Amino acid sequence: AALLTLTRKRGAATYAQTLHNIPETQVTTLENGLRVASEESNQPTCTVGVWIEAGSRYEDAKTNGAGFFVEHLAFKGTKKRPGSAFEKEVESLGAHLNGYTSREQTAFYIKALSKDLSKAVELLSDLVQNCALEDSQIEKERGVILQELKEMDGNLADVTLDYLHATAYQGTALAHTVEGTTENIKHLTRTDLASYVDTHFKAPRMVLAAAGGKFYILVILGISHRELVDAAKQHFAGVPFASKEDVVPALPHCRFTGSEIRARDDALPLAHIALAVEGPGWADPDNVVLNVANAIIGRYDRTFGGGKNQSSRLAALAVEHNLCHSFEPFNTSYSDTGLFGFHFVCDPLSVDDMMFLAQGEWMRLCTSATESEVTRAKNYLRNAMVAQLDGTTRVCENIGSHLLHYGRRIPLEEWDARISAVDARMVRDVCSKYIYDKCPAVAAVGPIEQLLDYNRIRSGMFWVRL
Fold first, then answer.
1. Distance of alpha carbon 423 from alpha carbon 158, whole angstroms
2. What positions does the domain Peptidase M16 C-terminal occupy (predicted)?
3. Catalytic site residues?
4. Is it the case that residue 26 has pLDDT exceeding 50?
5. How many whole angstroms separate alpha carbon 435 and alpha carbon 418?
6. DSSP letter at 178?
7. Cα-trace Rg, the chain
8. CATH number of the domain at 24-237, please?
9. Same CATH fold, 260-460 and 24-237?
């Protein structure tokens, strides 16, 4: 028994040891401004990807959807590897190639055996620099994207959050959807797509990130940062340099507006409601406190189980009174602004009660958050933070996104210190700063007859206390 106990203790690392033993992120900037970053690990595979400061926020009303269109075409061949040749080369490595586009960034990444790191870098450079944009492929993908847009209309959670952006940032670039409009997709030309790539795919707005390890005589070693830098110099040297304005694009401020969008459809079975106030940008330290506040609110879905015994007060009330099918808070950040709010799905006759309780939970955070629930929320955040260590893809994405958002990779030890510094008074003060007596943005879809007038919702953003 003593031997088993000793073995268990030897094999388990404490939370503090885990944070302390995370390898350092090495960063090198090439002459053309491309940042190359890597983290070693004891994984037999690696993930390498390119993160680009480009997305729907960089599009105008006529070109909205161009970035999403380019992402689709990027996997359909390059000038060097036309059509199926590109796909076969990726498959011959046993690799997984993927990508995504958001409002402020675009990413392409490959997960492969670490011995194929240099080849993965070459494929990514070809994809980014030499996308073929063939007319035949453009027309084919146009039909695919139009079909995707129809399917996306059925995802009411995403539709509601897109409406929320549209009303919160009306008249600005953040009001655009990532996918673009049906009308735009029908009329975007090869010239539009080529112009988007030439304008935004510049070296100082890119990060080449890698995470993983490699086998060497049956021993797993960390990937070589020198090897990654050499491969980047060889294959990304052709990515054009950019002026100072391109390095940090002069984006117009997307002004937040307290307003609402209602898309009533009584034929739908459930109502989707989203409510948000303006939150901070990525680099604002208030984000840590707001994330703690969201962890206090918690999230709930009927499939979770647990019912009234959950630590989330809002979840317990929702279960006790059968008020919703699910709810989830969010803190969505952008370069200079953000949306801090919640989204819930409920039956038509529960809309008013659920909104009342959710806003009441916000008011409670502003006025009477307690140390015990803050401690619980901080432990939840720490668990979510350490979960970022699971798998090379999540680590790689973390590196790429951090360098774009913050200009550096923030160590988990620093995040832990920021979380530890939060107390109940900070939660009350920061929540009051962003929530209390603020005009919210509201988006509602479905059978929403019971959703009260905007002025009534606005009156729920403060308490009259004697």
1. 33
2. 188-380
3. 71
4. yes
5. 21
6. S
7. 24
8. 3.30.830.10
9. yes
